[in-house]
Amino acid sequence: STLPAVAEELLREIKKAFQETSQVPDDLLLGLKFIFGPSAVPALDLVDQRSVTRVRSPSGRILYQVLGSSGKLYTCYSSCHFCTCPAFGFSVLQKSESLLCKHILAVYLSQAMGACQELAVSEEQLTNILLAEEEDEG
Question: Do residues 129 and 74 touch, judged by C-beta distance below 8 A?
Answer without folding.
Answer: no
